[in-house]
Design a protein that fits this description.
- The chain is an alpha/beta fold.
- The chain has three domains: 1-147, Rossmann fold, CATH 3.40.50; 159-294, Rossmann fold, CATH 3.40.50; 297-434, Gcn5-related N-acetyltransferase (GNAT) (Aminopeptidase), CATH 3.40.630.
- The protein contains twelve helices and 19 strands.
- The strands form three sheets. Strands 3-2-1-4-5-12-11-8-9-10 form a ten-stranded mixed β-sheet, with helices on both faces. It has a seven-stranded mixed β-sheet with strand order 13-14-15-16-17-19-18, sandwiched between helices. Strands 6-7 form a two-stranded antiparallel ribbon.
Length: 441
């Protein structure tokens, strides 16, 4: 299943434990063993103008070669050792870049550690890798145990996929995670956990619990078809804390969780808030899965009774209001949530386009373009006028809008900016017009 696995190592005890666990990953065909090094100026030598004897570079290469032989013997698959440069000290960036260049299907790292050459790789860097990569990533956490006066690392990786804790919120990402789990093939037991956050709608907790029980029963039945034993738990509390607590109580071998949850996977954010918190609290191996989802996207004109949805979005945009007598509002719904709006307002002497707005969490995904496209398709049979902010002139030009003088605006549309005293550019505004003859791109 994981044909080409990248393992990042810094030769720490956590890294060594991680290498011992690699044989538990199903379907491996090749391993890429990576160590990141940050070069420092060293005096040249007559023996080697680039790398003097016993330089950190040579020591790292020797250590990688030893690990290659050891790992190939243990895992039974070819191992490619790579020593990569951390540009400007960016260790996480080097790992993410190498995983992409090597077409790795999985990144494996220890949860914390210290480099042999004082280059921190694990710990804070593993967190940074999770945030920046779109690969699936397995972070191996090991608890410390005191034996004979020394701290040793407890090894959780024996059959790391044997008992999997799978948090579910009944969203698309958690559904994807369960489908993924069923394909792993060597999972013996699954603990399904649904956490009800009492901070949201506390009066509905009994109803939400009853609904969760029914849904979890269906999920258990589905897992039984795959001969996977499962148990279900419902907890009330803060999701990340409950996930970590149950992982300890149930003595699971792995936490498997999607990087996005129900409330955030449709937004333009790098990592879901629950996963981010689990990264901090969990003391068990953590598998963060990157779901490949197709969002439910709907572009449509809002009905009058839906104008209040647009007004909620406009709270972050001068608190605009919709007027059912003059306005047509077009929106982009992402998984049922209004994520972009654009308004066409009829004045006595022309049509004005304004109120084009996308909340910050949904930006940089083309939703504004989709909303404006729908507006022009519906209203573009007449000339359209607008006051465009200067930074968006090129955006509206792509729809056929052209710059015009302020005097060319219809009087009632021009009146909205009379406060500028004829200096619209000084107000960061450019009048624009889209003639009927222009073709929608």
């Amino acid at each position: 299943m994981f044909k080409r696995v990248l393992i990042a190592t810094d030769y720490s005890r956590h890294a060594e434990r991680t290498l011992e666990c690699i044989g538990e990953i199903p379907g491996m065909e090749e391993i890429v063993l990576v160590h990141v090094i940050h070069s420092s100026p060293v005096p040249a030598s007559p023996h080697s103008p680039f790398h003097p004897p016993d330089s950190p570079h040579e020591v790292a290469l020797q250590a990688l070669e030893l690990k290659r032989v050891e790992l190939e013997t243990m895992a039974g698959v070819p191992v490619t050792p790579l020593l990569v440069e951390g540009i400007d000290g960016d260790t996480a960036g080097a790992i993410v870049r190498t995983a992409k260049n090597e077409h790795s299907s999985l990144i494996v790292m220890g949860g914390r550690g210290q480099s042999l050459f004082r280059n921190l790789i694990l710990g804070s860097v593993s967190d940074a890798v999770i945030r920046r990569t779109r690969n699936d990533i397995l972070i191996m956490h090991f608890r410390g145990m005191v034996r004979a006066g020394e701290v040793e690392l407890e090894k959780f990786c024996r059959n790391v996929f044997s008992h999997v804790l799978c948090p579910v919120d009944f969203s698309k990402p958690s559904g994807y995670t369960l489908d993924y789990l069923k394909q792993l093939g060597n999972v013996r037991t699954v603990t399904l956990l649904h956490v009800i956050d009492p901070a949201s709608f506390p009066d509905t907790i009994p109803l939400r619990k009853h609904d969760a029980e029914q849904r979890l029963a269906l999920l258990e039945a589905d897992l039984r078809v795959k001969s996977i034993r499962s148990v279900s738990l419902i907890r009330i509390g803060i999701p990340a804390q409950e996930i970590s607590r149950v992982a300890e109580e149930e003595d699971v071998s792995l936490i498997l969780i999607a990087r996005y949850g129900q409330s955030d996977y449709a937004k333009n954010i790098p990592l879901g808030r629950v996963v981010e918190a689990v990264m901090t609290h969990a003391e068990r191996p953590l598998f963060v899965l990157n779901p490949h989802l197709i969002l439910d996207l709907r572009v449509q004109e809002l009905r009058y009774e839906e104008f209040s949805l647009a007004e909620q979005v406009w709270k972050g945009y001068h608190q605009q209001k919709g007027d059912t007598r003059t306005d047509r509002i077009f929106g982009v719904f992402v998984e049922g949530t209004l994520a972009a709006v654009a308004r066409c307002r009829r004045h006595p002497d022309g049509l004005e386009v304004d109120g084009v707005f996308v909340p910050e969490d949904y930006r940089a995904r083309g939703y504004a373009r989709s909303a404006v496209h729908a507006l022009i398709e519906a209203c573009g049979h007449e000339p359209l006028f607008m006051h465009a902010t200067l930074e968006l002139v090129s955006f509206y030009a792509s729809f056929g809008f052209v710059r015009i003088d302020e005097a060319e605006l219809p009087p009632t549309i021009r009146e909205r900016f009379n406060f500028a005293g004829g200096d619209l550019e000084g107000s960061d505004v450019q009048p624009m017009k889209r003639p009927v003859s222009d073709v929608l791109l």
